[in-house]
């Protein structure tokens, strides 16, 4: 995909996120800071700040296999490349997961059931399954990343919404996932 095409498709996806009632109603939104191959999340962060929302971004600790959410007040200061070369807040206190209203989640692929294929390290799955987490999960991807079926394991956390440059999916949970009980517990 050319950079221009990627930018156009990214804008279309971001506009769909802005229109979600969950985004509109959220006070605290966690947004991933994208790599060059992912949808650019700058517009989502800017829209959140313009709407007076608190914006959080993830910081990963590889040695502890742990991810936390830290407040981000600017995309121009206070960010440094983290463990995977992705910008992360240089400092700050972990934000309590109980107060996060929405988490925008990256992935290599998603399916219409909300299943997500991540990078394989499980950082988002562990974070989203943290006790007290009640945020709406929103997978964000290009339409080309939507596949018929994503294989899952018991620890994989499903998305409540999947947004692409073409569509918004609000999946119903398949009865066979091991996350059904976790969903009931949320």
Automatic annotation (TrEMBL):
Record has Nucleotide-binding as a keyword: yes
One Pfam family this sequence matches: 5-FTHF_cyc-lig
Example GO molecular function: ATP binding
Keyword presence, Zinc: no
Record keywords, A-Z: ATP-binding, Nucleotide-binding
GO biological process: folic acid-containing compound biosynthetic process; tetrahydrofolate interconversion
Family (UniProt): Belongs to the 5-formyltetrahydrofolate cyclo-ligase family.
Entry protein name: 5-formyltetrahydrofolate cyclo-ligase
Lineage of producing organism: unclassified sequences, metagenomes, ecological metagenomes
């Amino acid at each position: 995909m050319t950079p221009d095409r990627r930018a156009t498709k990214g804008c279309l996806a971001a506009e769909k996120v802005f229109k979600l009632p969950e985004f509109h109603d959220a006070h605290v939104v966690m947004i991933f800071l994208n790599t060059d191959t992912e949808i650019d999340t700058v517009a989502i962060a800017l829209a959140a700040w313009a709407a007076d929302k608190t914006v959080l971004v993830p910081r990963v600790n590889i040695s502890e296999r742990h991810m936390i959410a830290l407040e981000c007040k600017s995309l121009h200061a206070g960010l440094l490349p983290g463990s995977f070369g992705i910008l992360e807040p240089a400092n700050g206190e972990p934000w309590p997961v109980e107060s996060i209203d929405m988490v925008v989640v990256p992935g290599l692929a998603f399916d219409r059931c909300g299943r997500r294929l991540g990078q394989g390290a499980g950082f988002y799955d562990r974070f989203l399954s943290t006790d007290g987490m009640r945020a709406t999960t929103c997978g964000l991807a290009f339409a080309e990343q939507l596949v018929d079926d994503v294989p899952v394991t018991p620890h994989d956390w499903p998305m409540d919404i999947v947004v692409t440059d073409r569509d918004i999916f609000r999946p119903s949970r398949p009865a066979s996932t091991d996350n059904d009980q976790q969903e009931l517990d949320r």
